[in-house]
């Protein structure tokens, strides 16, 4: 269930006029236009605050010899036990 609160905000005259014109041109209400704008801005800011995932790297000399030259499909088959030639358990 969506609830609504009444509030009063001060908006620059030119911005309010443009918003009303946009709402009319879009066949929507000023309220809907303002809500959509707030959702967009708040969504972007929320997304920007998400922590970045640090890539995991390993020191070493690359793939194990048994995996060198093999594609990801073949490596995945070995990892999940679908490769009949695999020595891994």
Throw out a few tags for this protein.
mainly alpha; about 90 residues; single chain; 3 helices; about 0% strand
Structure notes:
With 89 residues, the protein is mainly α. It has a domain at 13-49. Helix content is 46%, strand content 0%. The protein is built from three helices and no strands. The chain has helices at 13-25, 30-49, 72-79.
What value does the average pLDDT take?
85
- How helix-rich are the residues, as a percent range? 40-55%
Give the overall shape. Answer: elongated
Largest sheet: none
Could you tell me the radius of gyration in angstroms? 28 Å
Total of helices: 3
Kindly report how far apart the N and C termini lie: 52 Å
Describe the protein's topology:
Elements lengths: L12 H13 L4 H20 L22 H8 L10
Helix pairs in contact: 1-2
Question: What's a concise summary of this model?
Answer:
With 89 residues, this protein is mainly α.
């Amino acid at each position: 269930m969506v609830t609504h609160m009444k509030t009063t905000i001060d908006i620059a005259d030119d911005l309010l006029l443009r918003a009303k014109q946009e709402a009319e041109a879009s066949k929507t209400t000023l309220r809907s236009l303002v809500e959509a704008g707030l959702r967009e801005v708040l969504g972007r800011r929320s997304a920007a605050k998400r922590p970045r995932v640090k890539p995991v790297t390993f020191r070493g000399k690359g793939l194990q010899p048994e995996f060198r030259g093999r594609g990801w499909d073949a490596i995945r088959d070995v990892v999940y036990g679908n490769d009949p030639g695999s020595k891994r358990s």
